[in-house]
């Protein structure tokens, strides 16, 4: 069976940046399992996996426009330290979940100057060219319920 829309795909993967630094990997963990064709993974990787079969290896370089997008300077804001009442000592690199009308978003502390704290709400991988080494470890038909929920049930997915 080949990877196509409405299949459930399991992959082992290692993601590196242009300098070869490992940003993310499934090594030592369960494979990533997702529903293909519903935008569950970034478009550049989804396109590269289409038509592949179990056991096939794929290497793909994904530019930001097919990955997590370009960095948006409008998503970088400086706020006062008093916004963090009750939070522990703020340090560069800390991440918080901010809630907004569009749902939760991870913001990262990128700069601190006195009581002024600069936050970046861009995805941490925005603006990066990404190199994926992937092995397809499983492909199966999605169930009707999985397609309706747009996520995987059972092994590697939701239990509900
Ligand atoms: Zn579900």
Query: What is the gyration radius calculated from CA atoms?
Result: 19 Å
CATH fold title of the largest domain: Chitinase A, domain 3
For the record, the count of structural domains works out to 2
CATH-scheme architecture of the largest domain:
Roll
Bulk shape: elongated
The tally of helices reads 2
Report the sheet-strand fraction.
35-45%
Number of strands: 9
Helix content: under 10%
| Biggest beta sheet summary | 5 strands, antiparallel
Description:
This protein has helices spanning 43-49, 144-149; strands at residues 7-16, 22-25, 32-35, 57-62, 76-80, 95-100, 103-113, 116-120, 130-141. By secondary structure, it is mainly β. The chain has two domains: 7-68 and 125-149, Chitinase A, domain 3; 73-120, Thrombin, subunit H, CATH 2.40.10.330. Strand 6 and strand 7 (103-113) form a beta hairpin. The longest helix is centred in the first third of the chain and has 7 residues, at 43-49. The protein is elongated and about 60 Å long. The two termini are 27 Å apart. Zinc ion (ZN) binds at residues 149, 151, 153, 158, 160. Residues 149, 151, 153, 158, 160 line the site of zinc ion.
Summarize this structure briefly:
The protein has helices at 43-49, 144-149; strands spanning 7-16, 22-25, 32-35, 57-62, 76-80, 95-100, 103-113, 116-120, 130-141.
What secondary-structure arrangement, pairings included, does this model have?
Layout: E1 7-16, E2 22-25, E3 32-35, H1 43-49, E4 57-62, E5 76-80, E6 95-100, E7 103-113, E8 116-120, E9 130-141, H2 144-149
This protein binds zinc ion.
